[in-house]
Known about the structure:
Elements: H1 15-33, H2 41-52, H3 58-65, H4 69-82, E1 85-89, E2 97-101, H5 103-124, H6 129-142
Antiparallel strand pairs: 1-2
Helix pairs in contact: 1-5, 2-4
Amino acid sequence: MSGLPFEDFDLGWAPGHLLRRCHQRFQALFSEAAAEFALTPQQTAVLIAVHQSPGSSFRALTARTGIDRNTLREIIARLIARGVVVRRRSARDPRCHDLRISADGLAVLLAIEDETRRVEALMLAPLAAAERADFIAAARKIAGLGTDGRTS
């Protein structure tokens, strides 16, 4: 070693770099597949989470999606402006808001579901079936989600 920084460091084997490249590939595939819906993967994840947990608070959605609170606020504001999510005062706590999917939001989810599933399959297509399950299990561990099937 000549003392130069990172002389023997290969980005092609660096986990953080590889995860970023996987994410970049997914973003490109999703953007192409979902162009007509004008939704980002993050917006889609939030829309799915709101649909699956009607009345969710920002705190619950942050835990469920892994999206930080400030970014989540921006995403929710865009989804509300678009009319696919509605925000109401919580009956349990008037200081809080509950979020629900609107009829338009449900229509968007119905329309985008097949493309979303297709992109997910495309991402995993280079892997054999057993490798896919192993990859998902490993990614869940790295993300701190465990193996119990929960998203948070």
